[in-house]
Each structure stands twice: as structure tokens, then as C-alpha cells.
Amino acid sequence: MKILFTGANGFLGKNLISDLNKNHTVFTLGLNDSDFQCDLSKEIPNLDQLNIDVVFHAAGKAHSIPKTDLEIKKFYEVNVDGTKNLCESLEKINLPKIFIFISTVAVYGREEGTQITEEHPINGKTPYAESKWIAEDFLQNWCKRNNVKLIILRPSLIAGKNPPGNLGDMISAINQGRYLNINHGKARKSVFFVKDFIFIIENAFKMNAGIYNVCDSKHPSFKELSLIIAKQLGKSNAFSIPLLPAKLIAKCGDFLGNKALINTLKLSKIINSLTFSNEKIKKELGWEPSDVINNFKI
Known about the structure:
Layout: E1 2-6, H1 11-20, E2 25-30, E3 36-37, E4 54-57, H2 69-90, E5 98-102, E6 113-116, H3 127-146, E7 149-155, E8 157-159, H4 165-175, E9 180-182, E10 191-193, H5 196-202, E11 210-214, H6 222-233, E12 239-241, H7 243-256, H8 264-271, E13 274-276, H9 279-285, H10 292-295
Parallel strand pairs: 1-2, 1-4, 2-3, 4-5, 5-7, 6-13, 7-11, 8-10, 9-12
């Protein structure tokens, strides 16, 4: 296949492009070191009569909490305007057959719950969640109008080499001996193994257009994740502290700001399970996603 991969310099690009290039022709679009260098949030790229089968749109803004109006605006510029600019450029070349959009389970707006499906209402209120949902809505209309198959993937945490976000923070804390499991690390989270995106791309022609949660079927606990990370880093296993002391420490953290190891918001995410159903994509492809615990190499 001929694939246009946006966000080539990001986490997904660094983990996927070299493998995709073994069997396919990949054209990259990114801020630098790409076939097409462009800031999608500000520019409409010139794709120079490119002829592609699949767009894998991974360019986006995530993994930060905005503190100013300017930082809030950036989410919409990158995730919404960037998507619109990409689509405008695609209209000037031979349109792709398939458009794969990397969205997020954050659009559901849930802090806890189990086996949440794609039918769950959209309740995400953060700039990240809201901007991704607006981009989804735009793409649904654009793809229908242009007869392009749209596959929206909503990943949970993504495990791969040098992950960003909460998983990256967890690795850093364990490496520095600052990580503690709370309440025995029993809470479970949905996680997706990054290399499985390749299987989805290569089998996208078999899929129906639609929205799909993507995660493994094990939904590992914090304890399971911390054990495998500590083992790979050659570190001691994390201690566990009871819930009550953790709540007191988190309360203190609320007053310390960014210097705090934990606050009540972080504590809530650590002690509450949040898992998503992957049954839809499993049935669609007759496929079992990789078990993160057995495949994750930091």
C-alpha cells in the first residue's frame, strides 16, 4: 500500500514507520525530517500530486493540561484546524480510499468504569477530548461527502518504546525510585500495544467504516504494569501504601502544585479502574490484540 503518515515525528511515527516501510511505501508528514514538512495547524500542505491508498492521521496534540487560554486554543488549532487543513490538501490530489484517524477514549469523559463501548455518550469536557471529538465529527461529514472510508480509532493508554503521557510518567517515577502503588495497585486500565496499529492499517480494507476502541483484552492492573517496568529497568518492585494515607498525601499535594508527586486528581485516576471494550474490532477482524504485559518493551 501507499500510506500517508501524519505526525511522523511523534510517538506513533517513531514506533511504526520503520516497520511499515518494510512492506509498504510510506510518505511522512511532520514538522521536520519528513517527506512533507508542514505545521498542519497553520498550513495547508502541498502534497504534490501524491497518489495514496491510506491516510494514517496521527498528528495531534495531547498529554498536557492547558493552563492558559493560549494553551487551550492550541488543542483546537492542532486537532481541529490541522485535520481540516489536511483534508483540504487531499482534495487537490487523488483522494485516498481509506482515512484512519487516531482519536482517543478521552471523548467519553469517564474517570472510572469497566468495558465502556463505542456506544457510550460523548461527555469529554477537556480541550483535548473536545477537540478530538470535533475533528471526528468533521471527518465523518468530509469522508461521506468524498466517498472515503473513515476508520476512527479510539486508543486508551498506548504502550511502546518511550511512551508519552501517564505511562511515560510511571516509567520515569519507577526509574527514579519515586513510584508507589496505592491500595495494592488493584485498579485496572486499558492499554494498547503500539505495534498492533500495523495490523489494523494492513487490514483496514477488510473493515467497515466506523468507530473502534483499541486496547488489549487483559486490561492490566497498576501492579502488573509496575512489576514489568521495574523488571526491565532493573529496579526494586514498588512499595504499596494503603488508601487512607494516600488520600492525605494527595490533599497535601493539592497545595504544592507541580512539585507534588501526587494530588487528588492523580489519585483518582490511580485508584479507579477505567477499561474499554475492544469487542467490536475483535469481531470485525477476527483478531486478538497483543497482550501488553507480554509484549511491552520500554
